[in-house]
Amino acid sequence: VATAEHKLVVATATLVLQSQLIQTVHSDLAAVLGRDLPAIEVKSPQHYIDLNKFAASLHQESPSRQTQLLQMKLLVWLTQTTTGDLDELHLTTYRAPLFMQIRHTGDSGTPFINPYYTLDFYRRLRASIDRAAIVVTNHAFLSRHADLLDLEAPFLVVDEAQHFADNTAAAFAQRIDLAQIRRQLRHLWRLSDPDEDRSLVNVYQNDRQMLPVLAQLNALTTTAQETIEILQHQIYRHFFNGKTTADQGFVSLSLDQAAINWLVTSQTDNIKTLIKVIGRIKVIATKLDADFNGRQHFFLKSDGQRFQALAALTVTLIDQRDRLKLLLARLPELVAGQTAVASLTLRQMHDVSSLGLSWDIFQVGSAIQQLLQRFTAPVFVGATLTTDRSFDFLTAQLGYHDLPETAFLKLRSPFHYRDQAKVLVATDAPAAGAVSAEAYADYLAAAIELLADNRHQTIVLFNSLATIAAVYQRLAHRPIADHKELLAQGVTGSAEKIAKRFAVGDQSLLLGAASFFEGIDYPDRLLEMVILTRLPFDAPEAAITKARYERLQAAGRDPFTEDALPRATLRLRQSFGRLIRTETDRGIFVVLDPRFITTRYGRKMQKSLPNIKPMTLPLTDMPGYIKMWLDRA
After folding, report:
1. 494 and 507: one domain?
2. CA-to-CA dists, residue 374 to 150, 152, 459, angstroms
3. Shared domain check, 20 and 121
4. Is residue 607 part of a domain?
5. Which positions make up the signal peptide (predicted)?
6. Residue 51: predicted pLDDT
7. What is the pLDDT of residue 248?
8. Quick one: which of 128, 406, 502, 578 is 20 to 30 A from 290 by CA?
């Protein structure tokens, strides 16, 4: 059905799944059809290298040894890549400063200012979309950049559709980091200050045309910094002045309608001023960049680093400027409180300069329906689309109402779960809320060591990064640490880093949070046991969760049965789904939450598991059973 003229867009939940899908299209689909279908993978521009910026980085003065090694690696890779996708490097982290300098922003410039314009990877990617029959992307890109695909009503398949609404909401959520804007403006001010040694004023010291431009840039950065300072102090005085907190860490304050109304009334002019000033800064930065690229013979090689810094700072400022513009556009929505919730954040209660603003979308059904108008015959697929054997929760999230039965299709699983998996529930596990945080972490560490002290790779799922850190600290001092590689999200590395490490391990124990309830496949013996520490309910105190619950209560509906329970049930099914990925896999799923067997809703959640009745055992009886069952050929 798919052709270059009438394309098929396939969107999945994560970048990892996106890469797996494009490989499937190129291999398995071609085998089924007996011919190749031209397919292309599309991501946000920051995943691609900007050749012009990379070339400029090679002229930096005294780069570090790490930067030099990375530049050499990139040069070798550039002789091999056809896409310019930095993910092809398969690094465990992309946090090196060089990546901040060379990532693409989506703006390829023109042949006049970009000597690599014809070779620019992202520009060529955009051009190659026209020739493709299948476009593979991710939920976030589809939600925010469907217009960039510029296609004529293509077909659409949304994979892992149970995540589409949440991923769309996350894509629409915004964080306005006023502290970051101030930092960027401060760096920009130094670049245009006559008293700074590395200022562009020294580059243009005899240029009567450009020196006034730099003076204007310096004045604008000063105005912008002063505007942010006024904005932060006025907001802080209104909401936080005189308040204290026992916790000296991160502070988040959800704004009610009265607070949002005050923000709109008192700060709209300041926000508009900041938007206008940053826009004028961009105009000047573009002029300076064009001058540098148009008269490179006039400059020293070492000057390139300053112009590159100018370009990088401007990109960050424009990103935050665009978020401020979106905030102004969304103010009526925030005031109405029907689909979004706003919050103020501080790194610490008395750190006025860290004050930032964020807002989250908790109702995206109408936005999704508007998005779907661009497509023909959208299809939503996934292994965990139902709760309580119904599609109602999913369809409500997607903005559909009263769909006919013919709109749904259920297919039987190829797996024989009764033979391939066992579910064990500890009868003596404590209720998390009934003991102190310290005692609960002690219990989990002891239980995990007892269950996972074997030769089988294990993932332990948590609802809290703080609990992961506490349990890891205990496990690190226990005998299990001598022969098991302990991987802990947020402690030994990011989720992406430890996931890659786990995939190449054979004696690994991974402690993970939300992102590990789904994602990378670990077939065969790469994963043989999953331990669920608590039933995966949302934290009720989170701003977006509270907003969803309040909206349901206002409509006379029960937030627990209509929102909290369906979401937790889907996550339970997803966490169980980590175990069995092929028809030859075998695995054990352990639940350490007594609510799974002692509450009515827990027993209801049990029914979501595929044709398996949980076994109840005391914790001390589990290791013997696990060894017997997993070691059985």
Report:
1. yes
2. 10, 8, 40
3. yes
4. yes
5. none
6. 96
7. 60
8. 128
Handedness of CA 617, 618, 623, 628 (dihedral sign): negative
Task: Tell me the per-residue pLDDT of 539-594, one tens digit each, with 9 for 90 and over.
Answer: 888 878 888 898 889 889 999 999 999 999 999 998 898 888 888 889 999 999 99
pLDDT > 70 fraction of the chain, expressed in percent and rounded: 97
What is the distance between the alpha carbons of residues 588 and 356, in angstroms, rounded to a whole number?
44
Q: What phi and psi, each to the nearest 5 degrees, are found at residue 412?
A: -70, 145
**Angstrom distance (rounded) from CA 164 to CA 142:** 10
What DSSP string describes 67-119? HHHHHHHHHHHHTT-SS-BGGGG--S---SHHHHHHB--S----TTT-TTGGG
Share of the chain above pLDDT 90, in %: 54
Assigned domain for 598 exists: yes
Token representation of residue 598: 């002692």
User: What Rg, from alpha-carbon coordinates, does the chain have?
Assistant: 27
Q: Which residues pair with 356 in a beta bridge?
A: 345
**Which residue among 141, 172, 203 closes a domain?**
172
Question: pLDDT per residue over 57-111, tens digit each?
Answer: 887 776 788 899 999 999 999 999 999 999 999 887 787 888 988 999 888 888 8
Higher-scoring residue by pLDDT: 601, 170: 601
The verdict on 571 and 449 lying in the same domain is yes
Higher pLDDT, 112 or 282: 282
Same domain membership, residue 616 and residue 467: yes
Identify the CATH number of the domain in which residue 476 sits: 3.40.50.300
If phi over 0 gives left and psi between -120 and 50 gives alpha, with beta otherwise, what is residue 150? left
SS3 state at 242: coil
Whether residues 285 and 332 share a domain: the answer is yes
Helix axes 178-191, 210-239, angle to 10 degrees: 160
182 and 331, same domain (yes or no): yes
The model's pLDDT over 182-241, given as tens digits with 9 standing for 90+, comes to 999 999 999 988 888 778 998 898 888 999 999 999 999 999 999 999 999 999 999 998
Residue 150 corresponds to which tokens in the numbers above?
A: 């510029």
Provide the terminal-to-terminal Cα distance of the chain, rounded to the nearest Å.
Answer: 45
Residues 438-460 pLDDT 10s? 999 999 999 999 999 998 999 99
Domain that holds residue 202: 175-361
Q: At what angle do helices 164-172 and 139-149 cross, to 10 degrees?
A: 70
Tell me the pLDDT band of 246, cut-offs 50, 70 and 90.
low
Give the Cα separation of 380 and 388 in Å (integer).
18
pLDDT on residue 518 = 67
- 59 near 97, Cβ under 8 Å? no
Take residue 190 and report the two structure tokens written for it. 């130094």
Assess whether 270 and 345 both reside in one domain: yes
Over residues 292-303, the pLDDT tens digits come to 878 877 888 778
Cα–Cα distance, 552 to 562 (Å, whole number)? 8
Same domain, 480 and 580: yes
**Whole-Å CA distances, 122 to 22, 24, 584:** 18, 23, 41
Q: Dihedral of CA 75/79/85/86: which sign?
A: negative
Total domains in the fold of the chain: 3
Is 406 part of a structural domain of the chain? Answer: no
- Strand duo 356-361 + 155-158: pairing: unpaired
Q: How many residues are recorded in the chain? A: 633
Q: What is the pLDDT of residues 118-158, one digit of tens each?
A: 999 999 999 999 889 999 999 999 998 877 676 788 999 99
- Is 411 among the domain residues? no
